[in-house]
Amino acid sequence: MSDKVAVLVAGSWGTALASVLASNNREVWVWTRTEEQAREINESHTNNRYLPGITLPSNIQATTDMKAAVQSAAAVVIVAPSSAMREVAGQLKEHWNDEMLVIHATKGFELDSLKRMSTVIAEELGCEEGRIVVLSGPSHAEEVVRRCPTTVVVASADANAAEAAQDLFMNTYFRVYTNRDMLGVELAGALKNIIALGAGMSDGLGFGDNAKAALITRGIAEMLRVGMEMGANPLTFAGLAGIGDLVVTATSRHSRNWRAGSMLGQGKSLDEVLSSMGMVVEGVRTTKAAYTISQKYGVQMPIADQLYHVLFENRDPRSAVEGLMGRGPKTEMEMMPLETWEQWHT
Fold first, then answer.
1. Is 107 annotated as a binding residue?
2. Sign (positive/negative) of CA torsion 307, 312, 318, 324?
């Protein structure tokens, strides 16, 4: 089996995963759209736009030629933004073969169709969705490239594919668990970005730790409701892809979603926030998708609803929080239907 792995594309997370693979002595080829970025990675071993001040392993080779990146690779890791996933997967189809392991590490939905990234990739490649692997969990690129201890999860309906991905990435600082609930892992990874936006907005408004703790906790309940309605295992939301990723994304200075929410809370417009970030903030697109999903499945998502009004209908952030606090009385523990409880406890 070839030691070559292709990574598409060279953003911060794609570069960080390439660094993990390179430290595992893989032959790593990173595909990028620009000659300038490819030249920087090859000659200076840096990617300063996305990971300033970091020196990359010398066994990472960058190219703008997707055929050169993918040819003879044992695995392809796709880390394109959700908005570009269908285009990148479509370009991959010409160079992909069904012996290659396909892993994606993108957290979001295709906005128009509300499809998960594994579905989009499978449609473009013409393969079974169940053979694709999703990588998720609490993992800031800025810490991974510095080899800080990190733990993630890889999920696939195909246990052999998940274990192959585990073997590919696992090392002394990057611990990898497997999970069969690909649906739950993808939903949790996408939906937690909404709650992170809300936590950042709360901090930007100066509301303190009590408010943020409430947002995170009720956010988990919100994620769980929609996940169960769509058929995910509720236990997945208590794991690395759920609580783990939510905590790190909703509390860390490295989180784009938290930073974007904080700026919104300080009074900046969405256009100002996105312009100053200079990188994709997946939570913005996911909020729009979740607003539609909540209506489609008849699931209450009050945090996502209020953020939708702030992001796309110019509602004042303070007014949105007051809207959440002013909702009618509720019980904390929503009852799980008996048949659902029995499904996951037998």
1. yes
2. negative
Query: pLDDT tier at 1 (50, 70, 90 boundaries)?
Result: low
User: What is the tally of structural domains in the chain?
Assistant: 2
50 annotated to a ligand binding site: yes
**pTM recorded for the entire structure:** 0.93
Full residue range of the structural domain in which residue 26 is found: 4-180
Measured from the Cβ of residue 341, the count of other Cβ atoms closer than 10 Å reads 12
- Domain membership of residue 191 (yes or no) is yes
Give the span between the Cα atoms of 229 and 225, in whole angstroms.
6
Task: Tell me if residue 115 is catalytic.
Answer: no
For range 177-189, the mean pLDDT: 97
pLDDT tens column, 196-230: 999 999 999 999 999 999 999 999 999 999 999 99
Q: Which of 4, 115, 192, 212 is catalytic?
A: 192
Asked if residue 346 is part of any domain, the answer here is no
Q: Was 252 annotated as part of a binding site? A: no
- Residue 341 in any domain: the answer is no
Which position has the token pair 């408004």?
Answer: 205
Is the distance from CB of 9 to CB of 32 less than 8 angstroms?
yes
- Say if CB 81 and CB 282 are below 8 A apart: yes
Is 12 annotated to bind a ligand? Reply is: yes
Asked if 105 and 77 touch (Cβ cutoff 8 Å), the reply is yes
